[in-house]
Design brief:
Structural class: mainly beta
Strand order of the largest sheet: 1-11-10-6-7
Number of strands: 11
Shape: globular
Order of helices and strands: HEEEEEEEHEEEE
Helix content: 10-25%
CATH class: Mainly Beta
Largest sheet: 5 strands, mixed
CATH architecture: Sandwich
Number of helices: 2
Amino acid sequence: MRKTTTLALIAGALVALGCGAGTTDETTGSKAETGTEATAGGKSDAGKSDDKPKTAKIGQPARDGKFEFTVKSAKCGVSKVGTSMLGAQAQGQFCLVTLNVKNIGKESQMFDGSSQKAYGANGTEYSADGAAALYANKNAETFLNDINPGNQVTGVVVFDVPKNVKLTKLELHDSMFSGGVTVSLA
């Protein structure tokens, strides 16, 4: 009996967590789960016929959930990050994406660099290299960093991609559950 009750409580908790995964941001009203209204300018595209989010460019703010992202730069072709004593060697090449992350919500939100994605020209998805990012950032800006409302951090998200790959876009997320917003690198 006790085992059944415990399993029921665990199942109930998992369902409750799943129901809260797609939160609505109070600031922009965008749905974090679907991303259908997360836009480059923070304005809703709901009135447009295609209902697709805008794509931001380097230097333009792009919102997803409680975060406003501004990609400052993207540099590929880096073979090592860190110092000669402590660092990480790329399997292919590192692409270093410097971005500013501002909390536009009304409560603290954790920024996790490993929730970010990059894409090559053929649509291949690349995940962030969290270990290399620790060496690329002085104060672990992109590693599980709680950002309070109104505050912002600037850090480097690192992607280890094959040497012949050119990244064309990023998909930036306020959490692993959000729909994300696209930033063009081309």
